[in-house]
What does this fold into?
Amino acid sequence: MKILDVTDLSVKSGTGLALVSNVSFSLEPGARLGLIGESGSGKSLTALAIMGLLPTELNVSGSVLLSDGKTASQQILDAPEKVLNQIRGAVVSIVFQEPLTALDPLMKTGKQLAEPLRRWHGLKGATLQAEIFNALDEVRIGNPKRIADSYPYEISGGERQRAAIAMALACKPALLIADEPTTALDVTVQAEVLALLDTVVASRGMSLLFISHDLAVVSRITDSVLVLKDGEVVEAGSLQNILNEPKHPYTRELVSSAKELDAALTISARSGGDHDISNS
It folds into this structure.
């Protein structure tokens, strides 16, 4: 059973301007797909459509089916909010570029993490407290108690993003959407967060939709790539094929740019060994 099946997804503005046009792709359990394109290419709109979070002034058509891999798929695009609230978190969760988008600046981090744990798992008291620390420990936060007792503005950007990831993972979703999750971080922290996502997704057997404008970053964590430009899919395929034989001019530009980045020279392949994008 597919975890995610997107068919002919189109999004238009209230004036009829096409923002996303006939986008189709799917994800099997445990699969990883990189959605890549420049700003304005429709990446984040696609993610919001999958989450059922598109602004009401936008017109959407097509089909977005989500499943936890155990039960029948649910159509997202016409689902009522009551149904969507049962799907968000339990079936699909999202990590945004800026963690303050997901974190309430006026609520301590631990209390925010407690909400999904209490709601979905019925935890309370000492059991809930222990699970909060476990969740923060899973995302490699060195001092879970300090983070739990801090407001988001009292911790670093990297710690905030790790806490946001912990919240997204709290309900054990079948699909994690990571929308530019490392763009706001420095290079060192970016690498740490990518390694964290790679490990957690693999250990849980989750599906991953990783959204970025940077092919070098996408290459570190996904198996396949979907290239968007001006709201349309211009190329799709395995990571290896995209790197070795890009067909569309825009994809060739992305590959060429990635090869110029020092950070893209060595890509760790989960199948074993190092993959050097410069030799692809």
